[in-house]
Amino acid sequence: GVICFLSIIIITVYSLINGRLINLRSIKIISSKVDEQIRLMFISDTHLGSNSKKHLQKILLKIQGLEFDLLLIGGDFFDSSSFDLDGLDILKNIKKPILFVSGNHEYYIKDHENKIKRLNNYDVTVLDNESFKFKRLNLIGISDNLTLETQKNIASRLIQEDLFNLILVHKPSLWDHVYEKTDLMLSGHTHNGQIFPFNFFVRLQFKNIYGLYEKLTSKLYVSSGSGCWGPKMRLGTKNEIVDILISKN
Q1: How many other CB atoms are there within 10 angstroms of residue 14's CB atom?
Q2: 2-247 domain in CATH 3.60.21.10?
Q3: pTM (predicted TM-score)
Q4: How many CA atoms lie within 13 A of 130 on its CB side?
Q5: CA atoms of 19 and 194, how far apart (whole Å)
Q6: Exposed (0-12), middle (13-18) or buried (19+): which is 216, by Cβ within 10 Å?
Q7: Where would I find the beta strands (DSSP E) of 31-175?
Q8: In this structure, are residues 187 and 220 in contact, taking their beta carbons and an 8 Å threshold?
Q9: What is the average per-residue pLDDT within 214-238?
Q10: Gap between the Cα atoms of 79 and 234, Å rounded
Q11: pLDDT(111) > 90
């Protein structure tokens, strides 16, 4: 009984500490479609509101020490009406283009349209259902509050076959419908289950739950997220910033 109780205490303390750490995950994508290297920082599921401005500060400090071209935010950036957007002033320290797509939690917020629009005041480009060109990169952003069919139609309309097509969308489900014409898709939402053994339940809904997946010439990266939702704990998973290098060789 005592051993069992101590084990629970140790696991809980470890999970609470782990839930506050931010890890850097690096991936490299090779493509003949790019002439020169493009380096992206990708974060998702920061859940500001559930998490504090201090948590965002910790993420940005890690990012600021790195060389990169664009910062991509894959939805569930904030999840509460109580989060004061003025806390996002620190984003102005980034000095690189910041591109955002909305996740499901943004849409749960009262007056979400106004809040999302206000991101522009903090040097954030809202890329919901639009594209952004950078060098040989065609970055397509798709919002979460649409049917899969509508998301697929938007992707088809914005894809440019001679460029490196990257889709930024909150949930990974779209990839099965667009991989034939997409070079890379970046998603989050799953948290990789956040606390073991919830990953088994999340996998029932999302077969691509975490990490890098490949099909034909297309790749999908599903992030475990940069923050926790609900209990600020992680067991068997990590908060992460994803450092993505797209290179010719």
Answers
A1: 13
A2: yes
A3: 0.94
A4: 10
A5: 9
A6: exposed
A7: 38-43, 70-73, 98-100, 124-126, 130-134, 137-142, 164-169
A8: yes
A9: 93
A10: 19
A11: no
